[in-house]
Amino acid sequence: MSGAAPRAIAARVLDAVLNRGRSLKAELAQALPALPDTRDRALVEAICFAALRQHARADAALAAWIPKPLGHRDGDLRALLHAGFAQLDPLGLAPHAALAATVDAARTIGRAHQAKLVNALLRRAQREGLPVLAADAAWPAWLRERVRGDWPDDADAIFAASAQPAPTWLRVNRQRGERDTSLARLREAGIDAAAVDGMPDALRIEGSLPVATLPGFAEGVLSVQDGAAQRVADAISPAPGARVLDACVAPGGKSAHLMERDPSLRLVALDVDPARLAKVREGWARIGVGAAADLRAADACDTASWWDGTPFDAVLLDAPCSATGIVRRQPDVLLHRRAADITALAALQARLLDATWATLRPGGVLVYATCSILRVENDVQVEAFLARTPDAIVEPLDDSCGRPAGAGRQRLPGEGGMDGFFLTRLRKAD
In this predicted structure, what is the pLDDT of residue 209? Predict the structure, then answer.
């Protein structure tokens, strides 16, 4: 496959995300299988992530360097230029190869008549670099203001951390291997992995790499899961053989972690999207868990449609949220999120809390989690729940789950190398 082909595919993915509101994850899932070479797949992924993290800088360069702005029909050309800029900075690919392949990609996507323009703009970027903007320039103004209002002393650090690539966190499956064994295998393969104190199932690798090629991944020994998300299993800590509800299970990593620790758990797992449930089942099959789990396509708010009245010992509510804590992993969040979404999400979270609380037995535990950094979805949401729920008792979590935030714990992006994440643990009074 020529060097132009992966650049053209990256441009098509970026066009869909930048100009048509598509999900980066969904577009990559569709595009990458078409590339037979793992190196090409890794290149496309790296280009797309780098381009989206700095889309504001690239747009500023295009506005300054092109006398006539690109029109709405030039979305694919704009996307290709974003891809070209990303190869030079921050990816630092060899300029000659990056320029030549990207110019060839212009012809591949039907822009042969503008190949000279692509070449000229990329050479200018090589000479001058892209404009330097504030770290929050990629954030929409309304969201920038929310973050600064919620975290006035930390906002700049949040914006800076969210613009950086995230490390790769791995979870070792206790049913199929020991962490020290996996660590040794990774190092033997030339991968600089490290164990993390206080996290018995976690390994961390700086940077990103094709995880499917990691020793132990195909055998179900390793899974990808951020360190902050791995703290959920510690927070909920169900008793052996407990009856557990995962109210919003997809993509399934947190329940998988619980089952790896205790295969005897009696798990009921819900998701509103049957297609996502199929992916959950597929992921669980790879690591050898969940064969006995009760997976249902259902709305957790509508308990009459799925609950048989038998109370749960523990509930995990990993609620739908703004995903503002994982911008470094999902940079398209900043392109697609709208202010009205936050209001709708907060209302949904409140309904989910009320509905799932009703399914919990007296003395049972509910863990509420989000990958958000917005207080209205996190500590403010929980305070409102406590105010209307007299039998809810806060059980404090320790510093390993983040800084104190009302009745829970908040980790901000990059702290401890982890994602932004909120956790709280509530017990129902006997």
Answer: 86
